[in-house]
Structure formats: structure tokens, C-alpha cells
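Phenylacetate-CoA ligase: C-alpha cells wanted.
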Amino acid sequence: MVFDSMETAPRSELREVQDERLQKTVQNAYENVAFYREVFDEHGLTPDDIESVEDLSKLPFTTKEDFRDHYPTGMFAREMDDVVRIHASSGTTGKPKIVGYTQDDLDVWSKAVARCLVASGLGSDDVVQNAYGYGLFTGGLGLHQGIEELGATVIPIGGGNTQRQVEMLADLGSDAISCTPSYALYLAEVADDMGYDIKDLPLRVVIFGAEPCTEPMREEIEERLGVKGIDIYGLSEIVGPGVSIECEEQNGLHIWEDYFYPEVVDPNTGDPVEEGEEGELVLTTLAKDALPVLRYRTGDLTTLNYDTCECGRTCVRMDNITGRADDLIIVRGVNFYPSEVESVVLEFDEVAPHYRIDIRREDNLDKLEITVELAEDFDGSRSDLKARIQKRLSNVLSFTPDTLDLVEYGNIARTEVGKVQRVYDHRGQ
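Answer:
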């Protein structure tokens, strides 16, 4: 089942829609956003030079720094009289990125999220418990309006208050819940503590996003909750959740290409990579009025697959995000991503899916400390388990962490609201 015909349109038809919408987007950006007008002028370009998506490479990238340099509303193409809603990024590394929406923008966003929900196997008869935070974060209201667009029932419970979340799942028979992957696992823990067997509840789908989720973590979610785990993707600067999602085949996330045009580039050079090769995802909005964005560097690492999916959808599929270009950790000259540590942790049944990475500098030398939580029912040899995990980490990371600590179940802090923090870099402190 699909939400509308564009999901299965021939790629030739899709390209016509993309080119037409891109021309309007470029014209809007040039005429109404001083930043983009200056970019075009500096490169000797006019909107007429961008006739199709093939011409996008003529333009430089837009970056998160551009948003911060033009804080708060310098990237807007509409006056505030036409803007009906404001959202913002978390702003964890400086000023938040302010994003605005006209009513038409909200309508597009709602349709994109509704497509996502249908792709995940949900319909108008389902009850969806939305455990994303409401407010400036795009997750809560973004999912909420998409659920309503679909005609399903939304429970706007928001983040946190986990015991109440469990009670609502049980009492209202929710078919799906939307939350971060780390929160889904925490939900299962709390349900166990409350005496619920969460697998006995009607819950059948978890739509998770806002954090990278490795395949082992997805398997852990599906096993612990007895559900199908579906990865959704989005970012505030582009629209919020709803840029792409996995269908029930769980073989890549469909990008709604009539709304968002994707590229993948080498994160170091900015050059396009071959199809199927990993690189940094770059997105261009094709149907945004208040905030048109051209060639935005997301920082997220992925690959693209243009083959028609077994579900029948023709929209390109991106792989699950493996990490962020700016999340790369360098310790003593060796590069690795937190997701590589997570993949190792989840290989061992003797440990819980909770860990933290601490990086310190002692006597001008970097020290990597990894803390892993033991499973609740662990009763084996710690020294043997530690040796096996240490060996596996060394093989995956190509170097041996300085410290590996195994701590009792429950010792690593859980996150009920927002994104979980795994990495603590103390070197600049």
C-alpha cells in the first residue's frame, strides 16, 4: 500500500517533477534570500543556469555554519507575516538553527510523514503513541501532524514519564510508538520492572529516529519489544522527520525525491561518489517556501540505491546512517566512529545495550576509556567476558582501548527525553 502515486512513479516522471520544482525553488531562493543571491552572484550564476537537478553541482554547498551566520531568520524567504510556525535545532554546538514554515510547508511536511507511516505498515485504523518531545524540536509536532494527515489516532504523550508510557501502551492498545532507539530499549526495561510483558501488548511497530541505529540495536529492539523496528530520518534544516523512512522490507530508507533531492559526496573533497559508495548525504529542498535550502551538507554518512524496492516504490533508498562526518573520533591518529563500538557491544548477550566512551588527555597522550553495562542476569566470569570484548574491540577499531570497564546493570544513565549521549570528550577541558 502507498499513500500517493509519486511513491511508485517511473523515474522519468519523477525527474520531470524534480526539475520543475527545483527551478521554482532556485528562483525563490535567489529573489528572496540575500545569502543565496550573493552566492549566485559570486559564482557568476543566475537562476536560469539551474534548469535541472543535473545543474546543481554548479552551486556550492550550504552548511550549518551558514545557518548560524545568518541567525535567526536570515535564511528565510518569507516575511514573518507568512510564517505560521517556527522550529529549531537543539543548538548543542552553538546557536540553534531556526527554521520556519508557511502553511503550504506544513502541508508538504504532513504528507511526507503520512507517506512514511504507510510505508512502515500503518494505516488510518491504527493508534500511534508519539513519544517524541513536543516544542521547538521537530520530532513531536512533525510526527503528530503526519499521523493526523493519515487519519490514524495519535496519542500526543511526548517524551519522558516512562511508566505512564507503558500504561498507555497497555490501556489504549497502541499499535505503534515513535521514539528514539535508545528510548525504545529503556521502555522495555521499565515495562519489565512494572511487571508487564511488553511482547504481550498489541504494539507491533516502533518508528525510531533522531539517533543513529545500528543493525544489532534494531535487532535488540525487535527482540525485546516483539515489534518491527522502522528507521525514520529527517533534520530540521530540511523539514524535520519525514525526509525518508524504511518500508516493511527494511532494506534502506526511501527518500521522497519529489520533495527532497539527494546527493552523496566525499566528505573530504565534496566530489560526488559512485552509486553505492558511502559518503556524506547532501539534500536540496524541492517544495519549501519559507526556507528553501540548496545542497545542504547534512554530515550524515550513507549510500544510495536506485533499484526499485521489492515493495514497488521507485524512490531512491538511502542506507541506515552509519555515523556522522563530524562524529569521527581521532585517538592517537586512529579514526573510528561510535557506531563501531556499539556494533561490538551488541554482539555480546552478556552485556546490556548501554555504553559510554570517554576520551581524556594525559601527559599529551590521548586515552580511550569504554564503559559497558553488564546484562541484568549476568552471572559469568567478568575477566573472561572482558577479555573477549577487548579482543573484539581491538579487531574492529584496529587498536586497543586503554580501559574497558564492565559495570553493573543500571549504572549507565538512561535518557528519557532527547538524544542519548554516548561520547564524552574531555580533551578540551
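The two ends are 53 Å apart (CA to CA). DSSP finds ten helices and 21 strands in the chain.

Cheers.
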